[in-house]
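Cross-posting from the chemistry board since nobody answered there.

I work mostly on the small-molecule side, so proteins are not my area. We synthesized zinc ion and want a rough idea of how it might sit in this target. Sequence and SMILES are below. Is it possible to get a predicted 3D structure of the two together?
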Amino acid sequence: MSSKILRGRVLTFVDEPQGADDHSAYRYFEDGAVAIDGGKIVAVGDFNEALKLALPKAEVMDHRPHLIMPGFIDTHIHYPQMQVVGSYAKDLLEWLNTYTFVEEQRFADEAHAARIASVFFDELVRYGTTTAAVYCTVHPQSAEAFFTEADRRKLRMIAGKVMMDRNAPEALLDTPQSSYEDTKHLMEKWNGVGRLNVAITPRFALTSTPEQLEMCQDLARLFPDAYIQTHVNESLGEIAFARELFPNLPDYVGVYEHYGLLGPKTLLGHCIHMQEREIEILYETGSVAVFCPTSNLFIGSGLFDRQRMRDANVRIAVATDIGGGTSYSMLRTLDEGYKVLQLRGQRLSPLESFYMMTLGNARALSLEHTIGTLEAGADADVVVLDARAVPAMAVKMERVETLSEELFLLQTCGDDRVVVETYVAGEAAKAGLSGVA
Ligand SMILES: [Zn+2]
């Protein structure tokens, strides 16, 4: 691995911004540098200082006047749903049954899974995302294909084989025993290999029997540090069905609580329609509520209440949720998140947005010393952004005076075109991409 210095305008958050003008929450270097060696960041600071500090012989990648930030993090995404994006449906359950549960059956074919995994990583890199928490399908080979390709590309990824043993087509069902054994096998084979982690992934309460949720609990006991990812309280129809299936438990979050699946490594997609008790349980267990704005708007599920979660000190992350979501871009995602919160009468400042897609999501994954930051010792996963990449943005930039204004323009109008380069473990990964193979 080569050593190199990225030169440009460097921005990295050190804490969550408290409001729109909290300049203590980030470090910014106008003529800055990120020094990289062996896939890790070894220094960050002013260009002249960084040069003296480290790597006098390193190659300098001059990205001036662009903005250098930590690679974006997506905390909830389904790689097998690349060909589900933009499917026309009335609501979540119709969308699942009509499109998603049909499409996911194709991942029994390992060659199909391998091809889509490769295209998936191309797209993440194209949009500046360097880490994601990912759902595979029920088929263990879908996870094998995913981890094999992620490892080849040296990406930091979290993923799991979906566990589901009822209320879906026969071809997508496992059993409590097979889901346990397949997940255990994946954990032993892939967890901690390269930069990979395996997540225990019951799809949601609707598609798991009590027997399967007990097996999830056994896995969580066997692998106490493992991530657990699932969905909760996304749509009203889904919630009514969950209440029917588990009539003796107090609420939907109560299902995961009952089976010991909540904790600081638990990622709960959506969390829109929440009872007061459910919010308290998320806080008490340190579980993470994952806000998926493009998905929530597209499927018409509802408006996430960020302020209510913050008031209760619940940990919050943000994610695309492709294929319910409509963009791979964390910029597009936060733009829609901003609009959801506007409709709720809540503010989301540009500093808070860019914190959320970097350090904020890293904290939600308990990886804040490893990703989402440009501090020395972190993985060298970096994105380079150009707010003048398209003419309409370039002309607007003539009127932009502050860093916050630039960030807000990137979020409001940006997509993959503003991503000049994405570095994965210190290597340029976007430059070599072509079209869909
Ligand atoms: Zn999802």
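Reply from a structural biologist on the board:
Welcome over. Reading the output above for you: The mean pLDDT is 96. Residues 228 and 328 are 22 Å apart (CA to CA). Happy to explain the token format if needed.
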